[in-house]
Amino acid sequence: MSGTARIPSTGQDWPSEIFAVLENYGVRQAAFVPDGGHASLITRIQQTGKIRAITLTTEEEGVALAAGAWIGGERSVLLMQSSGVGNCVNMLSLIRICRIPFLTIVAMRGEWGEVNPWQVPMGSTTQDVFELMDIRVLRADAPPEVESVMKAAAAMVFDGGTPTALLLSQRLIGAKTF
Amino acid sequence: MLDRRHVVVTLLADRKNLVVVTGLGSSTYDVAAAGDHDRNFYLWGAMGGAAMLGLGIALAQRDIPVLVVTGDGEMLMGMGSFSTIALQNPPNLTIAILNNSLFGETGGQPTHTGRVTNLAQVAKACGVPNICEIDTMLGIAALAGNIHDPKKGLTVADIKISQDLLPRVMTSRAGAVMAERTRRSLGLTPG
To answer: DSSP assignment of A148-163, as one string?
Structure first.
């Protein structure tokens, strides 16, 4: 059997709330290696066409893309799974050295109810990896707080110029079952 | 075999609104040797990221031609980006690979391109619409005639250059200053 074990729905469409914040901040480039936790947001981006959807082959491409987007005058966001954060580490040098207003939204694996142990090494170190590379970390654990945390992250990045990662906890997006 | 500095000087001659991104290592020195410019953005790290950084600029500035000048070693580290870039297919982006089949910065160890890997064919297989393999200055002149036109189509050029190691030409390594400089030249407000 496969599916997701989600906490009871509150009826809140938090992916749409994230999308609305991206739209309000004028984000024009959304790069991603897909994750189930981002599926709804990615579909929204692809369907509305206001934000360019950029499918990556590996996550660090999105870090370099974000630097280029900023230099070229567009705001961007990188969507990825926690396992992809490890792929980004050296490329995050760009963010620090070039002071890029970098926003990433990370769907967490390897924490709440994870049954694939291969996700745990990276999932359990995601926050530390970001902080070691000078990226601030905010976290949303439940649907009612997603919108406010997303707004806070976007303000830090686009109004304050502080590179920030928003972690969407596995408890929020649901543990994958097999 | 072509002289890398001569190649780059020819590509950048009479540049107008072109933005240039360099891959770390000798490519940065070659572009610096051709003359510093507000629209040069030099990488001193982030290996494998030059082409993707160029993509970000090209998508943001559709009317401005963007040229990535990098080496075969740097490009090998970001080969997947050929697929990512081909999917976006920005007509204003050219990636010029200065290919000497060496990791020049680290002692001249051979790269994969001298033995087994053809980067132009890799780019083609990834879906890049225009590819060329160049080993004459006539070919460079033809490429130079295209890169300043933002409508000429996404292009990857694999340029066979001499293995001579040339003197370094230094640039600023202050990434934030360089990024701001290029932004300002594009008419963007300070971050």
So the answer is: HHHHHHHIIIIIT---
- B83–A contact, CB cutoff 8 A: yes
- To the question of domain B4-185 being in CATH 3.40.50.970, the answer is yes
Which CATH number belongs to the domain containing residue A93 in this structure?
3.40.50.970
The SS3 assignment for A30 reads strand
pLDDT, tens digit, 9 for 90 and up, residues A79-100: 999 999 999 999 999 999 999 9
Alpha-carbon distance B45 to B28, whole Å?
A: 11
Is B175 an interface residue toward A (CB < 8 Å)? Answer: yes
Among residues B176, B137, B131, B183, the alpha carbon closest in space to that of B158 is found at B131
**pLDDT tens-place string over residues A5-47:** 444 455 679 999 999 999 999 999 999 999 999 999 999 999 9
B155 phi/psi in degrees, rounded to 5: -135, 140
Read off φ and ψ for residue A88, nearest 5 degrees: -90, -10
Instruction: Give how far B109 is from chain A: nearest CA, Å.
Output: 22
Q: Where are the domains of chain B?
A: 4-185
Q: Does B145 touch chain A (CB under 8 A)?
A: no
- Alpha helix stretches (DSSP H) within chain A: 14-24, 39-48, 59-72, 82-85, 93-98, 120-123, 126-132, 143-154, 170-173
**pTM of the predicted model as reported, rounded to 2 decimal places:** 0.96
User: How many Å apart are CA B104 and CA B47, to the nearest integer?
Assistant: 13
For residue B96, the Cα-to-chain-centroid distance in whole angstroms is 4
Element (H, E) at A32: strand A27-32
Torsion of CA A60, B70, A72, B143, to 10 degrees: -140
Q: Which amino acid is at B185?
A: S
